[in-house]
Amino acid sequence: MRNRENPTKWESYKQVITAVSAYWIFSIGLVFLNKYLLSSVKLDAPLFITWYQCLVTVFLCLFLSKISKNYGLFKFPSMPIDAKISREILPLSVVFVAMISFNNLCLKYVGVSFYYVGRSLTTVFNVVCTYLILGQKTSGQAIACCALIIFGFFLGVDQEGATGTLSYTGVIFGVLASLSVALNAIYTKKVLSSVGDCLWRLTMYNNLNALVLFLPLMLFNGEFGAVFYFDKLFDTTFWILMTLGGVFGFMMGYVTGWQIQATSPLTHNISGTAKAAAQTVMAVVWYAELKTLLWWTSNFVVLFGSAMYTYVQKRVMDKKNSGASPASQAKSDEIKLLTRDGSAAEESV
To answer: Which residue intervals define the domain Sugar phosphate transporter in the entry (predicted)?
Structure first.
């Protein structure tokens, strides 16, 4: 009888294909679904939409933890609600709220095809913030990759303007989202130990704190009135789509970890880059957009610069972890690459 811990080559390939496919489906699906909720649904309350998706994430974390504890059908971390831990996580939660708010506001004002380029400065801000806050220097090769990304970003903005679809508001929100994602990565590293290095538990506390932090922002933005007078407030389809957005956001945390486990942290980031390219092409086709050659060039430059930065940083990690055990090295790489560019958190809601 074959040992299940030593799967055949076909089973290994099948696991990789399934994991990568799930990551692509949930990630691309979440972007298109959020774009519909933020732009096509006539509800001028982007913060409320984000708040509701946070609520779904908290519910799913607590529900799955309870099921895991009581029935043992699967493994899911325990989710104790501790006010002390919540306070320790609060600085990160403030950054987290800014990140998901600016991220969704960017998506509200720009097209899905420009969405990746609009938020492409995350890597650049990560290098700058890491140096200013943590005092960590970056290699010359990584800085060259950042320069390439900056060039691609400005070329993309210029060409988006040439096609007449540029939203300066969306670009500003995209830049702020990129900065927030970089800060989120740094603060995540600082507070991860407070939740026992458990990314799921951190997700729960972040979203739980966000439920409270969003309330004054929604009040200030006048969204309570917008929701109260929304003509589809009791429409079943609307709430199904809202809940589906929250489920997709929650699943991003799982499929991201699954893809890393089935492949490697480097392959995960390469897959994310390829997914962004596919997402851009799909958006152009779906919305029947016409783009110039230079517009496509800007996307390629940003994607290439991001992929090269990932490769350069992975080589640096390999050198640092050369003396570590394989298990600790894998865990270190997973946490660093998950928090380096906020790949899971950035798309979670």
So the answer is: 19-309
Give the residue from 76, 13, 20 showing the smallest Cα distance to 259. 20
pLDDT digits over 35-68, tens only?
999 988 989 999 999 999 999 999 999 999 999 9
For the chain, how far is it from start to end, CA to CA, in angstroms? 44
Report the alpha-carbon distance of residue 51 to residue 44 in Å, rounded: 14
Instruction: Compute the CA torsion angle 4, 8, 10, 11 (nearest 10 deg).
Output: 10
Let me know if 337 is exposed, middle or buried by CB neighbors in 10 A (0-12, 13-18, 19+): buried
Helix (H, G, I), strand (E, B) or coil at 193: helix
Q: Please state the rounded mean pLDDT for residues 274-302.
A: 93
Rounded CA separation 313/71 (Å) = 41
Q: What is the mean pLDDT of residues 317-336?
A: 59
299: nearest Cα among 310, 314, 319, 284: 284
Q: How far apart are CA 212 and CA 281, in angstroms?
A: 38
Helix (H), strand (E) at residue 285: helix 265-286
Q: C-alpha dihedral over 143, 189, 349, 169, to 10 degrees?
A: -40
Q: How far apart are CA 214 and CA 219, in angstroms?
A: 9
Mean local confidence (pLDDT), 311-332: 67
User: What is the arithmetic mean of pLDDT over 225-254?
Assistant: 93
pLDDT of 265 above 80: no
Of the CA atoms within 13 Å of residue 37, those in its CB half-sphere come to: 28
Give the predicted TM-score (pTM) of the model: 0.86
Instruction: Give burial (CB, 10 Å; 0-12/13-18/19+) of 1.
Output: exposed
